[in-house]
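Sanity check

After download, print the first record. It should look like this:
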Amino acid sequence: MTTTALIERGRITARVPLAVQETLEMAASLMGATLNQFVVQAALHEAERIIEQERVIRMSVRDTKAFLATLDQPLPPNDKLKSALENYLARRNDQTGTIDWAPRQKRI
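Expected structure tokens:
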């Protein structure tokens, strides 16, 4: 007896100018893929590239040393940071792990 895993699938559609469609079809054909396979693979590749780019912080050796030194010896908290901590502690709800938040009033 074999079991078949059902994969949930979403649907993506796009309306593009005919010239764009023809270019995509040509590229897909050159790759030996269907238009759908080509578009999904290209979009997935670009999505993964963007996610990786946004997740990774790249720094020079000098910047890395300065960053780590700052972490090792942080500046003392200023009045604004102390006030923010007091505000947070006053609003924190230890039962739910949330804070009682309300938006700021609009300035006129």
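If your output differs, re-run the checksum step. Summary of this record's structure: The mean pLDDT is 89.
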